[in-house]
Amino acid sequence: MIQNSKQHDIDPADLRRKEKxxxxxxxxxNSDHIYRLGLKMLGNxxxxxxxxxxxxxxxxxxxxxxxxxxxxSTWLYRIAVNEALMLLRxxxxxxxxxxxxxxxxxxxxxxxxxIDWCCLPEKELLSSESRQKIQEAVQTLSDANRAAFLLRDxxxxxxxxxxxxxDISESxxxxxxxxxxxxLREELTVFFANRIVKENx
Length: 201
Known about the structure:
By secondary structure, the protein is mostly helical. The chain has helices at 12-16, 20-42, 45-61, 72-92, 122-125, 128-139, 143-154, 159-166, 170-187, 189-199; strands at 102-103, 109-110.
């Protein structure tokens, strides 16, 4: 979880009073996670820094809008994701990114091919080359699916918390996760297929 059990919880009332110590604690406890999310959403350190800064500026100015129905960390994630998505929309203009694959009549997108990497050695999955390939594959996801995947599978938020951050239903989160996971498997098929061949000549 974001907040270390050894750290004291932040009182939202202190934040509403704009107490510097409370905001310093908020930044200290959450900045690493917000920056990491921004970096993985945008793929650029400078953009991630901008998202980090904008997130805490907006949190400071809009703390009265925090109603306490979710965790402070969830509220910050929501701000960060919205900032990242706005930046991505500015980059792409009116172009809509669709997941690679075959679009079904009900709107679902199925990948063209999937390979089973269940037997791939753990050392191969954890190699620097593999990690780089995985990071590149994450960038191919649509903005919406990438956000759901990063929040749920990378940051470790629950399905409920992810739904709160993205302001969608839990079932919508599950659909986006399914699409993201399927597309990632397809994106990585060729790369890991070559590894399987090397391990099993």
